[in-house]
Amino acid sequence: MDIVFVTNNQHKIKEIKSIVDKRFNILSLEDIGFKGDVPETNPTIEGNASQKSFYIHNKYKINCFADDTGLEIKALNMRPGVYSARYAGDECDSEKNMKRVLEELLGKDDRSARFRTIISLIINGEEKTFEGIVNGQILNRKKGKDGFGYDPIFLPDGYDLSFAEMGLKEKNTISHRARATKLLIEYLNSFRFQ
User: Fold this and answer.
1) Which terminus of the chain, N or C, has fewer Cβ atoms within 10 Å?
2) So what's the pLDDT on residue 194?
3) Alpha helices, DSSP H only, in the chain?
4) Is-catalytic flag, 151?
């Protein structure tokens, strides 16, 4: 069965291909001839994941899945959330986003936060969603050089290394995206074809 991963990130596609049952042929947006941007205008992480997968499903009538991720910080009323990638403005980058978060947390004692990933899978016209969460704390300053996004300021619970100080292999075993992907893979690998 062909199934499209609604992403242009070839690293993500390769990773999924290596762990999904061989009954599934994972395709990229490029493989199906899609060029341009997939809309992400929903005000929630769940809504964005669904919007992306339904957009491709409705356009190509093909099974697909999409993900969306956000950093939710308790003291900031769960912001940046769905706006994590552009928290410091439309022309921002990870450095500016982290700077804004750290500035907004100045003087706040509660630094608890979580990364949350939602995967929306549409298979045979029906949607299933999978959620992955990793809880942690926002550090007072950046630590580590690896990773991307907010990784240098996120300390997962039970660890003394930020996501940016961990090796990719270690991070991928505990990350929010890894947890959501594991649920997706379990579902696909046990899927009964009609």
Assistant:
1) C
2) 57
3) 10-19, 45-60, 94-104, 168-174, 176-189
4) no
